[in-house]
Amino acid sequence: MKLVYGSGSDAGSEFTTSLVRYAYKPATVGETTDRVHIRIEVSGIRAEAVLDTGAPYCVMAPWLAAVAGIGAEGGLEDVTMVVRDSKITGQLHRVQLRLLADEGEDVEVDAVTIIADEREAFAMGDLPCFIGMRGCLEAIRFALDPANDLFHFGRQE
Amino acid sequence: MSTVAGAIEQIGPLLEGASSPDIGARANLNAIVGGILGVAESGKRRGDAGYLFGEAMASLNRRDFAAAKAALAAVFVVQRRGPYAVAAHYMLGHIHLQFGNLKATYDEWKQAWKLDRGSVPIQINLAGVLIQMGDFDKALDRLRRAERSAGTRSRHLGEILEFQSFAYLFKDHVDEAEAVLFRAITELPDRHSASLLLSNLYIREARRAPERRKEMLHKAIVPLEELLARVPGEVAALTNIGAVFAEMGDDSRAIEWYRKALEAAPEAEFAARNLALALARAGSYEECVAVLEDLTRRFPDDASLHDLLGAIHIELRRLTNASRELRKVIDLGAATAATYANLGFVRAESADFDAAERYFRRALELDPDLDVVRRKVEELARDRDAFRASRLPKELYAAANELEEARFERLVRPIDKAVWSGASFEEAVRLALRAGALPIARDLARQGAERFPENTRLRNAVATLAPPTARSVAHNSRSDRRADRDWIEAHRDEYGGQWVALRNGALVAAASDPTRLVELLGAERDVFLTKVA
Hints:
The complex is a heterodimer. Helices cover 6% and strands 52% of the residues of chain A. Chain A has helices at 62-67, 121-124; strands spanning 3-4, 14-16, 18-21, 23-26, 34-42, 45-52, 58-60, 76-83, 86-99, 106-116, 129-132, 140-145, 150-155. In chain A, a hairpin with a 4-residue loop joins strand 12 and strand 13 (150-155). Chain B is mostly helical. At the A-B interface, strand 6, helix 1, strand 8, strand 9 and strand 10 of A face helix 14, helix 16, helix 24, helix 26 and strand 1 of B.
């Protein structure tokens, strides 16, 4: 199901092209607040990721980055950010990650991503990946349908 | 450096229930003295034993030990053998106990017991002092005699059995200690402390014998669960189950139990302290701060709480708060090398390099083996050079290191960048990223690379920070998501806590952590990786 503009100069043109049913659940066992989880794919490995419009970057655990052949070192600067109550330190890399769709096409984004430092990987604990607003979601259009747990998305024209 | 790790190093979870004989407790003193004297008497004349004893009690309540001792000495002049003499000996023993003088305590209580051989509480406390003095056999002998005097229906039986368990435990007769506690639990099911002590005994054994650690920790939960079955919501049992999970290294389950304890009793101190430590270890810093701030309000002079809170604020990049808490530790006279190291870290992050160096050197004076601090001192010289070369204002460092994106932007925008060197741009990009200000970092990198096109670091920054691009790609996933979800539901019990790789609802591989799972997969792809909750 595609979303289209209903009025204005873009009326009738596509807003989003794809959708996926998201899981609404805590990010970790200990958490009590539910988060929107979508599925992503990195180099053929699929994993769950939390949609976090408050995060300045995407965050990826070193084990998933390793699948894409990216080490924790060799990126740009040591960056620290606090995600969902946890401090994460790592270096910035560009990572090709794919947002998986149930309907429509997948969308691939070369996202600005913190690869969590191995030495501080404990801080990631069982945290999933985080899809941040800047460096990733800013490249697409998206909308949430909470009544049906649907995440609509598509690349920007 | 790992600031939190330094602050919580070697702090184990606190266990509710005594870990040594609880002799000389204030309530115990009043109860025993009350027992010795019978119904409180009043209207005594000055110079009576009762009057003098009352004076001693009042002095003791004011913690004026010298006056209490003088009044008690006067009691003996008036009465050498009566109940006030017994109580006076007992109270003198207590005063010696306050100063850690066990031998003098023992002598006074023995005098009291000689004057009142029927007193079971005095006998029990004498045994307690003997245990603390290391004379376990003599303590056990006294406890056996106390049990005979008291009889099996005595309200003192629980205390007698628990003191016996301590004596056996410290003698290293663990089986006997365990048997005595089993008996206490069976015969006195309303006495919760025996269950706590039995659990603590297993935790102690787990710490002592690594090869039996797992077995002992699992055993430690059993008496606590049984206690909870009898007394749902028993706070000490809830807290200690959390502590057992913390010992197992399972902080998320420990946190669940500590939270249950605090739901049952919001003021439960051990549960709150343990929760703070577990949250710190688990990296749940925001909640940890909330718990610690509540604890520091209740216990403002507890330096360890301020120390940990300071370290957590550093992790959250709240450097002003961190500095405030760590300064309190110094003011309380309890600063350790880690405290000074953390303060050095805070000052270095604010580009206050001289103060940072002073704190680091103080940390090294206290602990010369702190290699991480020694390295930090060496790095300071480099950081100081970079700071001077960049000619950026100090305020930018503070804003960046406290993750204050808006403040950073307000500070950096008006600066005239025409005078900046390549190093200035590099440093400004680094600080902007630290502040979480990606658009500013992107802009600064672009400006810098235009001005200094030969600067590879700036060119690399431009490439890494460029706005992301998106493209639609054909839907290539062959895996059936519903089938994967069904597999997880069907195997939750079997694989709970494990990481699994699934394809079309079939298990491809499983491991205890994701890194190991990726290793097992090798070149295998088109799989869904998740942790079974």
